[in-house]
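User: Hey, quick favor. My workstation is busy. Could you predict this chain's structure for me?
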Amino acid sequence: MNEAKKDILIGFLIYTAELILFYYLWKNNIVLTIALVFVSVFVLLKWTDKEGKFVYFAGFILGLLIELTLVPTGIWSYGNPTIFGIPLWLPLGYGIGAVVAIKAGKSVSKLF
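Assistant: No problem, here it is.
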């Protein structure tokens, strides 16, 4: 299997795992946060390069800033917020999602 197909498969598996974790664990912020820390460690240490690490932390920080800006205005709210109206695990989800989107997108473009 070439590198592009491998990255698409890994990205799909990470995305699917993230959705399953969100679906089943959103009511338990601590457990979901710990699970996403493990996913983040895998993504950062095993699946990304220097650019991917930058994308992760950019997604983490920018997603957090957007949430901290918009949630207090009442635009939307979360069913199980932890601090400042947002769940503790949400920035981890933004970081993982950013890496998956960028890396999978680049891999798909390599196939065509």
